[in-house]
């Protein structure tokens, strides 16, 4: 009998992860579900709703065969043997825990729907990143709301570790897959069922099994450790600028220690993305609730340093430009939170642009993947900032002060300064002479990703600032 999988949530995680399962397991029928009709229509079209290298090939190869996208949530969940929940779990913006706790509204809605429509045993898989102990809450919601006698549930935790921009590579060749479940005969059987799915392409020794709480907490801890590494190297970048040391040389020196390792040591204008900040703040909230105040403060400092890094960058731009950017054109190169994605969630570019707009700058923004509509919406919204509220920015003000350009050279023409905020590969090979000739003098480059050759930029005539580099 064909195993039927349904996944609630067709976002950055639900879409690619389910596509990979369908691609690798010809004996499984996978349906990805969403309440967002537009998103499902896009998944069923030639233009997928998210940009991810290699995604189209995988989706187009199995869509309509083993992979389906649908809005018929209740029907497909009722038919499924395994139901993944991959809905969004953003930070709460109002009420108790606002600014820290995860908003579990979508999650609970999905659990209640499963309880309502189920009439056969199912394995429920937590794919979203959730607070530790969520499985217990799901068990309670399910067991108290089930309407049909035949329904019975085993809950598994199977957090996702893919990074955007490399999702397909990460899913095809994961460092590890974690499956947590109850250590009961039924829980262990459920773990084995999911293990058999992944074992169709992931080596068995890389499929780690654990209890539910270890698996849930491992995901929060992994993101906290990764973000901590970036805040650590970013804090060193500030020290470098004051001492003449070079942060890239430091990263090389410390990364050569095999206990530290070379990855994830690129100093930047700050980490972004939908998850690092959200998951750390959620962990901080959990620690506080458990009376672990010092531990909470320790992890919160990772986010504090990240906010400081973004502010530091803005301050350097303003002070370098003779303490005023009012009315000056500044080119912003890159708006996505990292290269190879069109995602702008929590991108440091929002904070940097907001900081410059607050000072009256005119911004010309170029990003190869982010649409003008997306940029303007991001900058118009009253962004929820946990410790640094910006003034509300009206759409009209954004329209007046933001120009979205279709090329780097257009964005830089007539500008006083260039800020590089995303490490797109095309920024590594810019024609700096052409850019310099088209700019107001003195012309500045503020490289928030260390992608430009600073020595060459200075030779061309630029006043060059590289993050964590000798001035
Ligand atoms: P997303 O916002 O892109 O997608 C979530 C989708 O769920 C949305 O399309 C939404 O319409 C849908 N949804 C919400 N409630 C629903 C319901 N009741 N029924 C049907 N659909 C519903 O979010 P995402 O980036 O895919 O993240 C999902 C989860 O995975 C989060 O918990 C996140 O922390 C975690 N995660 C994300 C990444 C990443 O790279 N984005 C990586 C690892 C883990
Ligand atoms: C991150 C984790 O890497 C994934 O394992 C995890 O599954 C995911 O979060 C999640 O839970 O959502 P992602 O946010 O997509 O993935 O991208 P990363 O490559 O981790 O980059 C995050 C941010 O850190 C980006 O803004 C990036 O530019 C920045 N970064 C990364 C640095 O500033 N320096 C580095 O050395 C590495």
Automatic annotation (TrEMBL):
Active site residues per record: 275 (nucleophile)
Keyword Oxidoreductase attributed: yes
UniProt binding sites for NAD(+): 9-14, 34, 39, 87-91, 128-129, 164, 275-278, 345
Keyword Oxidoreductase: yes
Keyword tags: NAD, Oxidoreductase
Catalytic activity reported: UDP-alpha-D-glucose + 2 NAD(+) + H2O = UDP-alpha-D-glucuronate + 2 NADH + 3 H(+)
Pathway annotation from the record: Nucleotide-sugar biosynthesis; UDP-alpha-D-glucuronate biosynthesis; UDP-alpha-D-glucuronate from UDP-alpha-D-glucose: step 1/1
Molecular-function GO terms, alphabetical: NAD binding; UDP-glucose 6-dehydrogenase activity
Record-level GO BP terms: glycosaminoglycan biosynthetic process
InterPro entries listed in its UniProt record: 6-PGluconate_DH-like_C_sf (IPR008927), NAD(P)-bd_dom_sf (IPR036291), UDP-Glc/GDP-Man (IPR017476), UDP-Glc/GDP-Man_DH_C (IPR014027), UDP-Glc/GDP-Man_DH_C_sf (IPR036220), UDP-Glc/GDP-Man_DH_dimer (IPR014026), UDP-Glc/GDP-Man_DH_N (IPR001732), UDPglc_DH_euk (IPR028356)
EC number of the protein: 1.1.1.22
A matching Pfam family: UDPG_MGDP_dh_N
Domain UDP-glucose/GDP-mannose dehydrogenase C-terminal: residue ranges: 331-454
Enzyme class: oxidoreductase
Gene Ontology CC annotation, any one: nucleus
Alphabetical list of NCBIfam families matching this protein: NDP-sugDHase (TIGR03026)
Family of this protein: Belongs to the UDP-glucose/GDP-mannose dehydrogenase family.
Name under which the protein is recorded: UDP-glucose 6-dehydrogenase
């Amino acid at each position: 009998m064909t195993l039927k999988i349904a996944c609630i949530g067709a976002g950055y995680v639900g879409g690619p992860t389910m596509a990979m399962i369908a691609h690798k397991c010809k004996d499984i029928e996978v349906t990805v579900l969403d309440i967002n009709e537009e998103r499902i229509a896009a998944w069923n079209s030639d233009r997928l709703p998210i940009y991810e290298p290699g995604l189209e090939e995988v989706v187009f190869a199995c869509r309509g065969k083993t992979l389906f996208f649908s809005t018929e949530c209740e029907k497909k969940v009722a038919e499924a043997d395994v139901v993944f929940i991959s809905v969004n779990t953003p930070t709460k913006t109002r009420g108790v825990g606002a600014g820290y706790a995860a908003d579990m509204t979508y999650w609970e809605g999905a659990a209640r729907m499963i309880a309502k429509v189920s009439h056969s045993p199912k394995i429920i898989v937590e794919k979203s990143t959730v607070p530790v102990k969520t499985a217990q809450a799901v068990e309670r919601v399910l067991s108290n709301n089930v309407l049909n006698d035949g329904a019975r549930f085993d809950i598994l935790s199977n957090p996702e570790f893919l990074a955007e921009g490399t999702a397909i590579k990460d899913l095809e060749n994961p460092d590890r897959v974690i499956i947590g479940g109850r250590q009961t005969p039924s829980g262990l059987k459920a773990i084995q069922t999911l293990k058999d799915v992944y074992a169709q392409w992931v080596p068995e020794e890389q499929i780690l099994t654990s209890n539910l709480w270890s698996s849930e907490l491992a995901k929060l801890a992994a993101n906290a450790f990764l973000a901590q590494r970036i805040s650590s190297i970013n804090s060193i970048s500030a020290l470098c600028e004051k001492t003449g040391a070079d942060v890239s040389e430091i990263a090389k020196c410390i990364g050569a220690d095999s206990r530290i390792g070379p990855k994830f040591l690129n100093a930047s204008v700050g980490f972004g993305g939908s998850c690092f900040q959200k998951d750390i703040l959620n962990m901080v909230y959990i620690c506080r609730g458990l009376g672990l105040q010092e531990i909470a403060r320790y992890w919160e400092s990772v986010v504090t340093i990240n906010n400081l890094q973004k502010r530091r960058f803005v301050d350097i731009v303003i002070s370098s430009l003779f303490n005023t950017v009012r009315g000056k054109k500044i080119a912003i190169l890159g708006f996505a939170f990292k290269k190879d994605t069109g995602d702008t969630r929590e991108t440091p570019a929002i904070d940097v642009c907001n900081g410059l707009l607050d000072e009256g700058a005119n911004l010309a923004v170029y990003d190869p993947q982010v649409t003008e509509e997306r940029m303007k919406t991001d900058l118009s919204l009253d962004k929820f900032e946990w410790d640094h509220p910006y003034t509300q920015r009206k759409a009209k003000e954004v329209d007046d002060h933001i120009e979205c350009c279709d090329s780097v050279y257009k964005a830089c023409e007539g500008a006083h300064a260039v800020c590089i905020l995303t490490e797109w590969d095309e920024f590594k090979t810019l024609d700096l002479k052409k850019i310099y000739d088209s700019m107001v003098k003195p012309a500045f480059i503020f490289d928030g990703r260390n992608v430009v050759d600073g020595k060459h930029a200075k030779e061309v005539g630029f006043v060059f600032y590289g993050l964590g580099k000798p001035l």
